[in-house]
């Protein structure tokens, strides 16, 4: 996509809002690479049962390389290579393949495989299985085949209301991974109301990538006159994205490719939202951007609601060997599925808690639920989920087993703690936007003003936001109250350091003397330890590995300082359309962050402007920003970040981590240090 965006003017015409994430998910990447690797190893032809993923362009390209797509394993010549698609197959299909002596390569998405495993478990428990999904979809056909004699398929809310279970029969439900999150929630709610003893999966079945793409489409739909979703008509997750966009109030069309874009759709349209289903390649999005550009839509903006770093391991025998001298396979990512599922469980814990609290207090009075809804809105808006990710990573890197409930609760608590910090931080920083939308205090101040209520609108908005932050803090502590004793100690240190760091941040905004050592301590305390060191230590403590505390402190403080310096650079020199918050806010609000403190102590002109500002009651933001640009501090900070990343990696060199985690944590340090938002 870089070529398209670089060659296309980015402003001056009608607007395109690109959703991020979009396109290929980890399961699709894995499935396509499996076919490509099978062709390299076995030579053409290789046979693929059904479409490997639901996209015409992908299938056509693989056919050109020698893949042969068949409707049934019975069409594959005896003894040939047969690849099962990402959607999974039934035990009957596996039996047929075995009888024909096929060389089977299984490209089933690990998240679909998890649903199959749950179906087998419920069947062993002699439960009737209610399978929520589309009866004619390959994924449902495969899962149904695990226990056909005790499975009922429910496709929509009406069928959920009509399904019959004999009295006293134990039942469970599972869902197709590519459904609409909202529709599935309604169906499950109906089933749970009708069958109070109904059991569900241990964690959410809806694929994280489907959730992320639906959330991204919701976000762009609110700002778009028309939403286009690139993908094929037989792609369930793509169809769901179109439905989600329409439910959010926008016109929406599924678009297989740029050639099928109807210019009539654009009549009266000023802003087009653009996304792609999980099986649609980015080249198709590039072509649509080109076509829209030809039609006058040349102002291109990206709206990011989540960051995806999941990679699924290839099956044994297809992995590429490493060329980096480590001796490890490049695809050695055995813990990715576990990490994804634990983070999904954390998300479910948060959503269930906030939904229950909204219902509880909304029943008292609609106004009582307002601060809970403010927390829920911030959490649902996305974000990087760094702290939960580092917590889960610390647990897995420490070889944790049997503490999955605790680490999911800790990860959920960290995300709600972060919501608390952001809501209060936005008030303290006087920030009007967060993640591209109005902050809680700004939004509720505007409501007060629009409705002409009594009192001061600003104070009302800030009051609502303060209470919302307090609730988020309380909910975070509720989720983590049953952690092991050592983990509770880490949690207490984490929350205390973050708040004390924030107090010193406030103090330096009132007395902004350029003290680089104190500014660095604040950065490490309220960002480095809070974002990386303590979450890692929390995960390790849950795993019972106190011996990793020193390693994670050295790694986390270095990577955390790099993270904060990148944050300072993005604030000073970044693009607000990319970061989702106003650029230059720290300078305008007289915050002596680490970047400014270093610049003031190393450059005479920056130091003079800061000193003059202190004497005169406030510095000139535009002149100070210009001086910082001229000072070369940006290059100096980039070099400092490089050294910090090197230090973080060095801290892992001799650490007793489980296989692959030394490399993975090193890569995570690079991602947080060199991010663009």
UniProtKB/TrEMBL annotation:
<feature type="binding site">
    <location>
        <position position="87"/>
    </location>
    <ligand>
        <name>isopentenyl diphosphate</name>
    </ligand>
</feature>
<feature type="binding site">
    <location>
        <position position="137"/>
    </location>
    <ligand>
        <name>(2E)-4-hydroxy-3-methylbut-2-enyl diphosphate</name>
    </ligand>
</feature>
<protein>
    <recommendedName>
        <fullName>4-hydroxy-3-methylbut-2-enyl diphosphate reductase</fullName>
        <ecNumber>1.17.7.4</ecNumber>
    </recommendedName>
</protein>
<feature type="binding site">
    <location>
        <position position="87"/>
    </location>
    <ligand>
        <name>dimethylallyl diphosphate</name>
    </ligand>
</feature>
<dbReference type="InterPro" id="IPR033749">
    <property type="entry name" value="Polyprenyl_synt_CS"/>
</dbReference>
<dbReference type="InterPro" id="IPR000092">
    <property type="entry name" value="Polyprenyl_synt"/>
</dbReference>
<feature type="binding site">
    <location>
        <position position="54"/>
    </location>
    <ligand>
        <name>dimethylallyl diphosphate</name>
    </ligand>
</feature>
<feature type="binding site">
    <location>
        <position position="237"/>
    </location>
    <ligand>
        <name>dimethylallyl diphosphate</name>
    </ligand>
</feature>
<feature type="binding site">
    <location>
        <position position="137"/>
    </location>
    <ligand>
        <name>dimethylallyl diphosphate</name>
    </ligand>
</feature>
<feature type="binding site">
    <location>
        <position position="25"/>
    </location>
    <ligand>
        <name>[4Fe-4S] cluster</name>
    </ligand>
</feature>
<feature type="binding site">
    <location>
        <position position="236"/>
    </location>
    <ligand>
        <name>dimethylallyl diphosphate</name>
    </ligand>
</feature>
<feature type="binding site">
    <location>
        <position position="235"/>
    </location>
    <ligand>
        <name>dimethylallyl diphosphate</name>
    </ligand>
</feature>
<feature type="binding site">
    <location>
        <position position="235"/>
    </location>
    <ligand>
        <name>(2E)-4-hydroxy-3-methylbut-2-enyl diphosphate</name>
    </ligand>
</feature>
<comment type="function">
    <text>Catalyzes the conversion of 1-hydroxy-2-methyl-2-(E)-butenyl 4-diphosphate (HMBPP) into a mixture of isopentenyl diphosphate (IPP) and dimethylallyl diphosphate (DMAPP). Acts in the terminal step of the DOXP/MEP pathway for isoprenoid precursor biosynthesis.</text>
</comment>
<feature type="binding site">
    <location>
        <position position="87"/>
    </location>
    <ligand>
        <name>(2E)-4-hydroxy-3-methylbut-2-enyl diphosphate</name>
    </ligand>
</feature>
<keyword id="KW-0479">Metal-binding</keyword>
<feature type="active site" description="Proton donor">
    <location>
        <position position="139"/>
    </location>
</feature>
<feature type="binding site">
    <location>
        <position position="235"/>
    </location>
    <ligand>
        <name>isopentenyl diphosphate</name>
    </ligand>
</feature>
<feature type="binding site">
    <location>
        <position position="237"/>
    </location>
    <ligand>
        <name>(2E)-4-hydroxy-3-methylbut-2-enyl diphosphate</name>
    </ligand>
</feature>
<feature type="binding site">
    <location>
        <position position="54"/>
    </location>
    <ligand>
        <name>isopentenyl diphosphate</name>
    </ligand>
</feature>
<feature type="binding site">
    <location>
        <position position="54"/>
    </location>
    <ligand>
        <name>(2E)-4-hydroxy-3-methylbut-2-enyl diphosphate</name>
    </ligand>
</feature>
<dbReference type="Pfam" id="PF00348">
    <property type="entry name" value="polyprenyl_synt"/>
</dbReference>
<feature type="binding site">
    <location>
        <position position="279"/>
    </location>
    <ligand>
        <name>isopentenyl diphosphate</name>
    </ligand>
</feature>
<feature type="binding site">
    <location>
        <position position="279"/>
    </location>
    <ligand>
        <name>dimethylallyl diphosphate</name>
    </ligand>
</feature>
<dbReference type="Pfam" id="PF02401">
    <property type="entry name" value="LYTB"/>
</dbReference>
<keyword id="KW-0004">4Fe-4S</keyword>
<feature type="binding site">
    <location>
        <position position="236"/>
    </location>
    <ligand>
        <name>isopentenyl diphosphate</name>
    </ligand>
</feature>
<keyword id="KW-0414">Isoprene biosynthesis</keyword>
<feature type="binding site">
    <location>
        <position position="279"/>
    </location>
    <ligand>
        <name>(2E)-4-hydroxy-3-methylbut-2-enyl diphosphate</name>
    </ligand>
</feature>
<feature type="binding site">
    <location>
        <position position="237"/>
    </location>
    <ligand>
        <name>isopentenyl diphosphate</name>
    </ligand>
</feature>
<keyword id="KW-0411">Iron-sulfur</keyword>
<dbReference type="InterPro" id="IPR003451">
    <property type="entry name" value="LytB/IspH"/>
</dbReference>
<comment type="pathway">
    <text>Isoprenoid biosynthesis; isopentenyl diphosphate biosynthesis via DXP pathway; isopentenyl diphosphate from 1-deoxy-D-xylulose 5-phosphate: step 6/6.</text>
</comment>
<dbReference type="InterPro" id="IPR008949">
    <property type="entry name" value="Isoprenoid_synthase_dom_sf"/>
</dbReference>
<feature type="binding site">
    <location>
        <position position="109"/>
    </location>
    <ligand>
        <name>[4Fe-4S] cluster</name>
    </ligand>
</feature>
<feature type="binding site">
    <location>
        <position position="177"/>
    </location>
    <ligand>
        <name>(2E)-4-hydroxy-3-methylbut-2-enyl diphosphate</name>
    </ligand>
</feature>
<comment type="similarity">
    <text>Belongs to the IspH family.</text>
</comment>
<feature type="binding site">
    <location>
        <position position="137"/>
    </location>
    <ligand>
        <name>isopentenyl diphosphate</name>
    </ligand>
</feature>
<keyword id="KW-0560">Oxidoreductase</keyword>
<feature type="binding site">
    <location>
        <position position="236"/>
    </location>
    <ligand>
        <name>(2E)-4-hydroxy-3-methylbut-2-enyl diphosphate</name>
    </ligand>
</feature>
<comment type="pathway">
    <text>Isoprenoid biosynthesis; dimethylallyl diphosphate biosynthesis; dimethylallyl diphosphate from (2E)-4-hydroxy-3-methylbutenyl diphosphate: step 1/1.</text>
</comment>
<keyword id="KW-0408">Iron</keyword>
């Amino acid at each position: 996509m870089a070529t398209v965006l670089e060659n296309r003017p980015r402003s001056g015409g009608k607007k395109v809002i690109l959703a991020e994430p979009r396109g290929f998910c980890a399961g699709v990447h894995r499935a396509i690479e499996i076919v490509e690797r099978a062709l390299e190893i076995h030579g053409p032809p290789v046979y693929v049962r059904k479409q490997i993923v639901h996209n015409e362009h992908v299938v056509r390209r693989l056919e050109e390389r020698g893949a042969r797509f068949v409707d049934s394993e019975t069409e594959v010549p005896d003894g040939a290579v047969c690849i099962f698609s990402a959607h999974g197959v039934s035990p009957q299909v596996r039996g047929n393949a075995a009888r024909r002596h096929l060389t089977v390569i299984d490209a089933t998405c690990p998240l679909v495989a998890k649903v199959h495993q749950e179906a087998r478990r419920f069947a062993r428990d002699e439960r009737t299985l209610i399978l929520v999904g589309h009866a004619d979809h390959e994924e449902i056909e495969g899962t149904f085949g695990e226990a056909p004699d005790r499975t009922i398929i429910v496709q929509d809310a009406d069928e959920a209301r009509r399904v019959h279970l004999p009295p006293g029969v134990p039942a469970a439900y599972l869902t197709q991974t590519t459904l609409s999150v909202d529709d599935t929630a309604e169906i499950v709610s109906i089933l749970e109301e009708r069958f109070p003893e109904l059991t569900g999966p241990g964690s959410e079945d809806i694929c994280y990538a489907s959730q992320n793409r639906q959330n991204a489409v919701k976000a762009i739909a609110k700002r778009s006159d028309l939403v286009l979703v690139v993908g094929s008509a037989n792609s369930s997750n793509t169809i769901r994205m179109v439905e989600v966009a329409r439910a959010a109030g926008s016109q929406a069309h599924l678009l297989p490719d740029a050639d099928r874009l109807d210019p009539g759709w654009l009549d009266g349209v000023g802003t087009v939202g653009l996304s792609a289903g999980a099986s649609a390649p980015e080249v198709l999005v590039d072509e649509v951007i080109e076509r829209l550009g030809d039609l006058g839509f040349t102002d291109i903006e990206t709206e990011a609601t989540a960051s995806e770093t999941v990679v699924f391991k290839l099956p044994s025998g297809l992995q590429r060997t490493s060329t980096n001298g480590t001796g490890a396979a490049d695809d050695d990512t055995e813990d990715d599925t576990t990490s994804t599922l634990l983070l999904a469980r954390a998300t479910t814990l948060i959503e269930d808690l906030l939904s229950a609290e909204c219902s509880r207090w909304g029943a008292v009075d609609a106004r009582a639920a307002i601060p809970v809804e403010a927390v829920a809105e911030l959490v649902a808006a996305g974000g990087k989920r760094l702290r939960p990710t580092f917590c889960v990573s610390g647990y897995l890197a420490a070889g944790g087993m049997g503490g999955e409930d605790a680490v999911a609760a800790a990860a959920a608590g960290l995300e709600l703690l972060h919501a608390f910090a952001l809501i209060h931080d936005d008030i303290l920083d006087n920030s009007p936007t967060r993640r591209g939308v109005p902050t809680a205090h700004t939004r509720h101040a505007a409501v007060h003003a629009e409705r002409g209520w009594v009192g001061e609108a600003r104070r009302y908005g800030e009051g609502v936001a303060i209470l919302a932050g307090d609730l988020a803090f309380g909910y975070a502590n509720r989720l983590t109250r049953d952690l092991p004793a050592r983990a509770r100690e880490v949690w207490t240190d984490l929350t205390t350091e973050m708040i004390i760091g924030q107090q010193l941040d406030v103090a330096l905004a009132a007395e902004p003397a350029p003290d680089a050592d104190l500014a660095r301590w604040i950065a490490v305390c309220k960002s480095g330890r809070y974002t990386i060191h303590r979450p890692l230590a929390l995960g390790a403590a849950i795993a019972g590995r106190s011996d990793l505390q020193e390693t994670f402190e050295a790694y986390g403080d270095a990577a955390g300082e790099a993270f904060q310096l990148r944050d300072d650079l993005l604030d000073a020199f970044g693009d607000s359309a990319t970061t989702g918050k106003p650029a230059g806010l720290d300078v305008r609000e007289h915050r002596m962050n680490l970047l400014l403190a270093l610049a003031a102590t190393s450059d005479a002109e920056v130091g003079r402007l800061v000193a003059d500002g202190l004497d005169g009651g406030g510095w000139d933001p535009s002149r100070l920003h210009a001086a910082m640009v001229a000072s070369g501090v940006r290059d100096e900070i980039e070099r400092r970040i490089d050294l910090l990343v090197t230090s973080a990696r060095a801290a892992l060199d001799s650490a007793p981590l489980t296989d692959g985690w030394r490399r993975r944590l090193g890569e995570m340090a690079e991602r947080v240090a060199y991010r663009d938002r």
